[in-house]
């Protein structure tokens, strides 16, 4: 998957600003502690930043930047925490997302899943999910399912069904085995 350049630019500055505003709204807690019930109050600046980045006026390829931003956010969620000095020494040399990922505060899966739901990005969620290695993909599906089943709202159900539909449209049956969502016979 060619991501193009991931340098720090106007779009990353806008995204960074959205996360800084969300972080301010959530103080004294860290965004890594965010729950679904907090999202409505805290998530708006992040969603607005991504919508600004994705607007046709902001960039000639709005979908490409939305995709890049979600890749960066998901990479941030998957980073091990806490980060040790030796991790940092290795990551700055080897991690493609090091500079842009450090612009975003530590976040959890709730931020990622609620952002995807707010952006109605079920197709993009599946596209990015399928780019992950199988073990990570299955772990992320489990986390998504756990997320949906906690304090479930009608929006959660709708997003889950959209994700399920996108997965059924784009994923061969054999890729879903052994998937936690199904019990299909082999």
TrEMBL record:
Q: Name one GO cellular component term.
A: SMN complex
Q: Name one GO biological process term.
A: rRNA processing
Which residues, by range, are in coiled-coil regions? Answer: none
Q: Which protein, by its recorded name, is this?
A: Gem nuclear organelle associated protein 4
Species of origin:
Macaca nemestrina (Pig-tailed macaque)
């Amino acid at each position: 998957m060619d991501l193009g350049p991931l340098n720090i630019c106007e779009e990353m500055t806008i995204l960074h600003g959205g996360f800084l505003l969300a972080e301010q709204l959530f103080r004294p807690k860290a965004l890594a502690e965010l729950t679904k019930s907090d999202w409505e109050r805290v998530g708006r600046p992040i969603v607005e930043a991504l919508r600004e980045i994705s607007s046709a006026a902001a960039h000639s390829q709005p979908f490409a930047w939305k995709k890049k931003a979600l890749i960066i956010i998901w990479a941030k969620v998957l980073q091990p925490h806490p980060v040790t000095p030796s991790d940092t020494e290795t990551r700055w040399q080897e991690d493609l997302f090091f500079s842009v990922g450090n612009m975003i505060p530590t976040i959890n899966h709730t931020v990622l899943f609620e952002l995807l739901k707010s952006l109605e990005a079920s197709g993009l969620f599946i596209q990015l999910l399928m780019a992950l290695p199988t073990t990570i993909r299955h772990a992320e599906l489990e986390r998504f399912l756990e997320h949906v089943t906690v304090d479930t709202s009608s929006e959660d159900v709708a997003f889950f069904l959209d994700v399920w539909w996108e997965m059924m449209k784009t994923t061969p049956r054999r890729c879903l085995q052994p998937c936690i969502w199904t019990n299909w016979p082999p």
